[in-house]
Design goal:
The complex is a heterodimer. Chain A is an alpha/beta fold. Chain A has 20 helices and 10 strands. Chain A has helices spanning 2-26, 47-53, 56-62, 75-87, 100-109, 117-120, 133-138, 161-167, 175-188, 202-213, 231-245, 258-266, 280-284, 326-336, 339-347, 355-359, 361-364, 369-381, 393-408, 413-432, and strands spanning 37-44, 66-73, 95-98, 140-141, 144-145, 148-160, 192-195, 270-276, 295-299, 311-319. In chain A, helix 10 crosses helix 11, helix 10 packs across helix 19 (393-408) and helix 19 (393-408) packs antiparallel against helix 20. Chain A is globular and about 70 Å long. The N and C termini of chain A lie far apart (76 Å). Chain B is mostly helical. Chain B has 2 domains: 14-63; 72-288, MetI-like fold (Orthogonal Bundle). Chain B contains 13 helices and no strands. In chain B, helix 4 (83-114) packs parallel to helix 7, helix 5 crosses helix 7 (152-177) and helix 7 packs antiparallel against helix 10 (206-222). The chains are: A alpha/beta, B mainly alpha. At the A-B interface, helix 1, strand 2, helix 4 and helix 12 of A face helix 2, helix 4, helix 6, helix 7 and helix 9 of B.
Chain lengths: 433, 289
């Protein structure tokens, strides 16, 4: 009896020791050994990442002893991870892909991003001046460069070529023409006229081009006074609301982001859709769209202030301020954003932030010609932001976006604007304190 | 005739009514069961069907049930992504966290149950009350300084933080329900207290241990938050890996659904099989008692 008890206890101890041993065996601290260095790079799930990831072995071959370890995550997961890790002062992230307009100001203010001002000017051949002005402005914080823009996007107008042809409608050049065309198509009864994002927060970026083209903005230049109740902003809210609420799909949901809105267009249910240029492959590839061969592209229609879409760096590369391999990290950033690799990435359909690749015919050859033209126009006439330039961007978007939903659902837009203006003013006052 | 007929009606009608009521109840129960089953199974059915569709068909309501199936999504999951590694990671972390939690929690639960250590039990329960997310930053700070982020160790330890109190509380109530007389009898027969625990109490507790293990394993398998921050490229678990199909300007819905099937099916199978085991274990215990 006792003998068997001893056996059971021995077995339990053995399991514990084995498991512990297994755990210990798995615990291999990652770091530098014998002159070898591991560069830890965190990237977002993006076509850009898929392209450059396959080429990282070239960088490793050029830098003996260097291993690049890539962690790849979705955009929201990436933000969550940064918030925890950077807040804990980690040095386990060296190079980080981030969204300059969504979290750039917050990260820079918290001191998470290293000052790259000296780095970007160290190699004339790499040519910092080749980067577009708007994106550079978005990756600069209080006069210091904190990121290198890698991907840009502009708001463009997608349309159904067959529908416009059938109804004899010209491609809209102004917002008035867009509204008239959407109305005519909706009244025809076969498909809806226009669709865009409808979610409170998601819609803000795509509504911004309406706001700018009407001559408005989120706030005054130094962000001390909210300007959501100006006549231009009011017209932008109402027009966006009419386009989707009256001429959009029936019973349209008010929590659509780009996957839902793009799907309605890709399923052939809508004639016009305005969103980021980077989404075109969701509409123009046979594997994603039923109308892939009937998609037309146009610059964002002009309002009273002209055609003023956003032209933003959706992603940039920064270096963790607590990284102890900043030189190597910038070598890697420099390599990733070299004119050659940038051209290669753009040839694969990812709009880049370097002017030279847009001037190079090879750089635009892979884009549908109409889209390349629309992007080029957007890059010239656009502004460098698509959401309020504040620290707590998510909160600001909720405030600014509220009247959009009210306008879509046909509610009291004036009251919603009044409330948004007061809330946004209080928000700005609070942030400026 | 009339009298007979009337008496017949009088005598049979309550029975008939009962039968009708019985039939009505059965029909109602069947309808409710179908409704509940449909509600719970619809997302799973949609997920499985979508995993065999192209992205165009997934959004096409006309192709909800009739479509040309494709295995491309599964090819993406197992061919292009390293899902075998992710499955192993999830399994390893869940199994080791559950095993270690059992080793610590079962004897602890026994002691707390038999020696009435309620204050200690409440202290352990605190771990269940504190939201895990509030511990992420300090955990990351500690593990990062120990240079073990990205290995299995912080994942196992963080999962144990939740699993251990869970197992402890399940086992405490289980031990409470077992008569102490059995152990006393065993000790009269010559067993030591530890021997009585190992040879009498523990075998009778197998159904409880099985239940606690399954719940702990399922928690670990599904945990996303801890793995998001504490795992590395080679230790990524399935719930984190699934987000690889959500890109910035493109979402591979088919691949996402195939990956979701890969995440869901193993745990469903494990739950179904171990449920059987629990039931048989409970029956065995009842007969012995």
């Amino acid at each position: 009896m006792k003998h068997r008890s001893i056996k059971v206890v021995t077995a339990a101890v053995a399991v514990t020791v084995l498991t512990g041993g297994l755990l210990a065996g798995c615990t291999t601290a990652e770091g530098e050994e014998g002159g070898k260095q591991t560069l830890r790079v965190t990237l977002a799930n993006h076509v850009w990442t898929d392209i450059v990831k396959d080429k990282i072995s070239d960088f490793e071959a050029d830098h003996e002893g260097v291993t690049v370890e890539v962690t790849q995550l979705g955009e929201d997961q990436l933000s969550d991870q940064y918030n925890v890790k950077l807040n804990a002062g980690t040095d386990e992230i060296d190079v980080m892909m981030y969204r300059p307009l969504q979290e750039g100001k917050l990260f820079a203010q918290n001191g998470y991003l290293a000052d790259l001002s000296d780095y970007v000017t160290r190699d004339a051949a790499w040519d910092w001046n080749d980067f577009q002005e708007g994106p550079v402005e978005a990756t600069t914080y209080e006069g210091s460069v904190v990121g290198v823009p890698i991907i840009t996007e502009q708001q463009v107008l997608y349309y159904r070529t067959d529908v416009l042809e059938k109804l004899g409608i010209a491609v809209p050049k102004t917002l008035d023409e867009l509204e008239a065309a959407a109305k005519q198509i909706k009244e025809q009864g076969e498909i809806a006229g226009y669709v865009g994002r409808t979610g409170v927060s998601a819609a803000v970026t795509q509504w911004s081009s309406f706001l700018f083209s009407e001559g408005g903005d989120f706030a005054n230049k130094d962000y001390t006074k909210a300007t959501l109740d100006t006549p231009a902003a009011k017209e932008a809210y109402e027009l966006y609301g009419r386009l989707i609420g009256q001429y959009g799909p029936a019973n349209v949901s008010t929590d659509m982001s780009w996957p839902d809105a793009a799907a309605l267009f890709a399923q052939g249910q809508v004639a016009f859709y305005s969103d980021a240029s980077s989404l075109y492959q969701n509409l123009a590839l046979e594997e994603n769209s039923t109308v892939w061969d009937k998609v037309g592209y146009a610059p964002f229609p002009a309002g009273p202030a002209g055609s003023v879409p956003y032209n933003v760096p959706s992603w940039a590369l920064g270096i963790n301020n607590d990284s102890n391999k900043k030189d190597l990290a910038f070598d890697f950033v420099e390599w990733l954003t070299s004119p050659e690799l940038t051209l290669e990435v753009q040839e694969a359909g990812v709009p880049a932030a370097r002017t030279s690749v847009w001037d190079n015919p090879a750089g635009t050859a892979s884009f549908p010609p109409q889209l390349a033209e629309a992007i080029a126009i957007g890059a010239k006439t656009g502004v460098g932001y698509d959401r309020p330039r504040v620290i707590s961007v998510a909160e600001a978007r909720e405030i600014v976006g509220a009247p959009i939903v009210v306008a879509i659902t046909g509610g009291d837009v004036d009251a919603a604007i009044k409330k948004a203006q007061a809330d946004f003013q209080a928000f700005l006052d609070d942030e400026n304190d | 005739m009339t009298t007979t007929a009337t008496s017949l009606i009088v005598t049979t009608s309550p029975l008939q009514r009962r039968r009708n009521r019985g039939r009505g109840y059965k029909a109602f129960r069947a309808i409710m069961l179908v409704l509940v089953a449909l509600t719970f199974l619809a997302p799973v059915v949609w997920m499985v069907l979508s995993s065999f569709k192209t992205n165009v068909d997934i959004y096409n309501s006309e192709a909800a049930f009739i479509f040309t199936p494709t295995l491309k999504n599964y090819d993406t999951v197992f061919g292009q992504a390293d899902y075998v590694q992710y499955i192993w990671n999830s399994f390893f972390v869940a199994a080791v966290a559950t095993l270690l939690s059992l080793l610590l929690a079962v004897p602890a639960a026994y002691s707390m149950s038999r020696f009435v250590m309620k204050k200690s039990a409440v202290l352990v329960l605190l771990a269940r009350v504190i939201p895990g997310v509030s511990l992420l930053v300090p955990w990351y700070f500690v593990f990062s300084n120990l240079r073990i982020v990205g290995t299995y160790t912080p994942l196992v330890l963080s999962h144990m933080f939740v699993s251990l109190p869970l197992i402890l509380y399940i086992m405490m109530s289980f031990f409470d329900s077992l008569p102490e007389e059995l152990e006393e009898q065993a000790q009269v027969d010559g067993l030591t207290p530890i021997g009585a625990f190992l040879r009498i109490t523990l075998p009778l507790s197998v159904p409880g241990i099985a239940t606690a293990s399954i719940l702990s394993f399922i928690f670990s398998w599904n945990n996303f938050m801890f793995a998001l921050v504490l795992s590395g490229a080679s230790t990524k678990t399935l719930p984190v890996a699934i987000f690889d199909f959500v890109g910035y300007a493109s979402i591979d819905w088919g691949g996402l659904m195939a990956a979701a099937v890969v995440v869901t099916i193993p745990i469903m199978v494990i739950a179904l099989f171990t449920q059987k085991y629990i039931v048989s274990g409970l029956t065995a215990g009842a007969t012995k008692g």
